[in-house]
Write a structure and sequence with these properties.
heterodimer; A: 441 residues; mainly alpha; 84% helix; B: 324 residues; alpha/beta; D-Maltodextrin-Binding Protein, domain 2; three-stranded parallel sheet; 31% helix; 19% strand; Solute-binding_3/MltF_N (chain B); Bact_solute-bind_prot3 (chain B); signal (chain B); transport (chain B)
Chain lengths: 441, 324
């Protein structure tokens, strides 16, 4: 501030003092133009200068108010986008989980034989229904995902057709059913899941962009600071020119703007911090747990395939190990308290080892019996893991959406209050200058 | 070639004359494909399979195996003794070739002609037909699991030929099949020669696929297993399937809109694959096979699984004389 005031000290000279540099620069950029002779004459007199100062104050206050409103609305929009993008991302992940769940149920039921267990069938149907609904919902909410969603939906249709063909043949005791199940699984893994993974990547990108935009809004407040500088400079000039220390209107206007700016900075900043907290907390955990669940469920399909391929399932077991290891890593890296899930994952992997031990020892029938037994340790452990992971994801998604929604509401309110403050400051400032102007009448 | 089955009237009486006739036939049957198809199959989607890659072997004894020497008795230190100690016979089989080796969805058990032959070997080894540990393998894996020592035996519609003898050993022939084609019910084709310009499926790593290359005007399509071909056929992705009549009979049983046409255009002598070094095991298996062929077990198995192909022929004559 001191540097801005010091050139003003030049106005203390006698004679036809030049206009304060700061004011001159803003008010009369076309100073030497011949057309503005009248204006220059008017500006040499104090009332003219006062009027220019008044206009400056009004414009600065209104700009500050508008900037506050824009900042509030922009941040609300960014929070809204973050909310929509996180919802879309989690939605895609849920569809992916539904599909691998369906596949795990279908392959596991296949192990049982022609008469598949009702409970497995229900699990498959429910998962497919949820996946279809999920895909339809996702298609409506973000048009840029349409291509990949189309690929996924088309693949899903093929997949369910092949699974039904596998079932129909299996039911009649025809081994060609196994070939259809193989085809189904390969369609799922070569068409549908890669499309969904592409969607996940796209949406992660968008989410990052939205969260970044939330914090970027703060620099808009720089306009408010600029307005405050204008007000202060005008007051300093006025004090020197009129020999009155304070102008009530301008002082109150300044205070209003200071309060609005500081308040705005605090509210917008807190919303940004809150968004960061959400991103690093519930949102990050939801993404991690969802990814781990996806990996674990796919590994469950691999477990079934090691038994279906009977003795030639080594490659599937290697995939199982790779996927469960990766799931454990993902859970490790997730914000607490996802650690409990890591324990449950380890329990399931341990139970899976029992199946492998039986199969490796030549007791294939025993291994299958354990793998398909709803009361068996592996199934109980796996069900516990999926239930815990699902509810963890659900909680975190709700928390993410609520937090982003609340923050969005607060900043919209702030925006309108800022505009109000700007208008009030403009009125007060004009009236303050008006008082001085009246003294020249 | 359809007459190949009736050309074996002998009841395992190994006279010199029969031996000569059978060896002559073996030359014709077993080595026929490799004589005329020395290069790897140039199918569109096929990488050279281990069976087709090595230089074509010339031999006239593809069906000649090692003669049994000690019947089904097990001498200490032999391969069989080690298997008995382990407690189970590890066998490579198919789980999706109906009639020969397929998983019964109702029981979950793998069953078929090949499987029952293995049960007989288990019975001879352990006094219990069920001491089998199955490894389900694809056609293309048959040689690898034997050369890699992962299984004791492979019984999976395994055609004996000279190329394969260079890597592994075979038991005596236990079933004579022939390659035919399967087409849709309304097809007018009467044999492979009528399929010019059409897409014909065969499994990877089989003599069947090799033989398709002799028909350059046919588009060969490779699948992982025979049953993979049936799925493609039902989806209209191929027009026909070629394979051994034993396998195709299993397909017709699964699909009423398919039919097998024409005469067999090759002879496929099936043998049980054994790692090359386990000559004692080959002799043991041959003793079991000879027993089954003579005591009526073989005929009963044929009637049970392959009755759809017609009344049981005489079992293939075991040909011996190979030395390690």
């Amino acid at each position: 501030m001191t540097t801005l005031v010091s050139p003003g000290s030049a106005t203390g000279r006698t004679g036809p003092a030049p206009v304060t540099p700061a004011v001159a620069a803003a008010a009369a950029p076309g100073d030497p133009a011949p057309a503005s002779h009248g204006l220059r004459a008017a500006l040499r007199r104090t009332p003219g200068k006062l009027r220019v100062a008044g206009v400056l104050v009004v414009v600065a206050a209104l700009v500050a108010g508008a900037a506050g409103l824009a900042a509030g609305l922009a941040q609300a929009a960014a929070l809204d986008a973050a909310r929509a993008d996180t919802a879309q991302l989690i939605g895609v992940r849920e569809v992916r989980n539904d599909l691998v769940t369906a596949d795990a149920a279908a392959t596991n039921a296949f192990l049982v034989g022609g008469l598949e267990p009702v409970e497995q069938r229900v699990r498959y149907s429910t998962a497919i229904a949820e996946a279809s609904q999920g895909l339809a919902g996702l298609a409506g909410s973000n048009s840029s995902d349409a291509d990949l969603l189309g690929t996924a939906t088309a693949g899903l249709t093929t997949y369910t057709g092949l699974v039904e063909q596998a079932r129909a043949n299996n039911r009649q005791g025809f081994p060609v059913g196994a070939a259809y199940l193989d085809q189904a699984s390969s369609v799922l893994r070569s068409e549908v899941l890669p499309a969904l993974d592409g969607l996940v990547a796209d949406n992660e990108h968008r989410v990052d962009g939205s969260f970044a935009a939330v914090s970027q809004v703060l620099w808009v407040l720089a306009l408010c600071v600029l307005a405050l500088v204008v007000l202060v400079v005008v007051q300093v000039w006025l004090a020197r020119r009129t020999h009155r220390r304070l102008n009530a209107g301008l002082v109150v206007a300044t205070v209003v703007l200071v309060v609005a700016t500081v308040g705005g900075a605090v509210v917008l900043g807190r919303a940004g911090v809150r968004a960061d907290d959400v991103r690093d907390g519930p949102y990050a955990r939801a993404v991690a747990v969802s990814q781990a669940l996806s990996l674990a469920t796919d590994a469950k399909s691999m477990e079934s395939f090691t038994l279906i391929k009977r003795g030639s399932g080594q490659a599937f077991e290697e995939t199982f190990v790779a996927e469960t290891d990766q799931a454990a890593q993902v859970l490790d890296g997730a914000p607490a308290p996802a650690g409990d899930l890591g324990q449950q994952l380890a329990t399931w992997v341990g139970a899976h080892a029992q199946i492998r031990a039986l199969d490796d020892a030549g007791d294939w029938d025993g291994a299958v019996a354990l793998a398909v037994d709803p009361q068996g340790e592996p199934r109980i452990a796996f069900d516990a893991l999926t239930a815990a992971a699902t509810s963890s994801v659900d909680e975190d998604v709700t928390a993410t959406q609520d937090a982003l929604g609340d923050a969005g509401g607060a900043v919209v309110l702030l925006g309108w209050l800022a505009l109000l403050a700007g208008v009030a400051a403009a009125v007060l400032g004009w009236r303050g200058i008006g008082r001085r102007l009246e003294e020249y009448r | 070639m359809t007459t190949t089955r009736t050309r074996h009237p002998g009841r395992a009486r190994r006279t010199a004359a029969v031996l000569a006739a059978v060896v002559g036939l073996a030359l014709l049957a077993g080595c026929d494909p490799t004589d005329t198809a020395p290069s790897p199959t140039p199918t569109a989607s096929e990488t050279p399979s281990p069976t087709a890659a090595p230089p074509a072997a010339q031999c006239d004894d593809a069906t000649t195996s090692y003669a049994p020497d000690a019947g089904t008795s097990v001498t200490p230190g032999s391969t069989m003794a080690a298997i008995q100690d382990r407690g189970s016979l590890v066998v490579g089989v198919s789980a999706d070739t109906l009639l020969m080796g397929s998983r019964n969805p109702l029981t979950g058990q793998i069953e078929g002609f090949d499987i029952d032959v293995l049960h007989e070997i288990s019975r001879a080894l352990f006094g219990d037909p069920d001491r089998l540990q199955f490894r389900v393998i694809t056609s293309g894996q048959r040689l690898d699991v034997l050369t890699g020592g992962q299984v004791d035996l492979v019984a999976r519609t395994f055609t004996m030929n000279c190329d394969r003898w260079q890597q592994i050993a075979f038991s005596a022939e236990y079933l004579r099949s022939g390659q035919k084609v399967l087409v849709t019910r309304d097809s007018t084709a009467t044999g492979i020669d009528d399929l010019a310009g059409q897409r014909v499926c065969a499994p990877k790593g089989t003599t069947t696929l090799d033989r398709l290359s002799q028909h350059p005007d046919i588009t060969a399509v490779a699948a992982d297993t025979h049953t993979g071909c049936l799925a493609l056929f039902q989806q209209g992705k191929v027009d026909a399937i070629t394979g051994d009549d034993t396998v195709l009979a299993g397909f017709v049983a699964q699909d009423p809109y398919a039919k097998v046409v024409g005469d067999a255009f090759s002879a496929e002598p099936y043998g049980i694959g054994v790692p090359a070094a386990n000559v004692d095991m080959v002799r043991f298996v041959n003793a079991v096979l000879d027993q089954a062929k003579t005591d009526g077990t073989w005929t009963a198995l044929y009637d049970r699984w392959l009755g759809a192909l017609g009344p049981a022929p005489a079992p293939p004559t075991s040909v011996y004389g190979r030395t390690p």
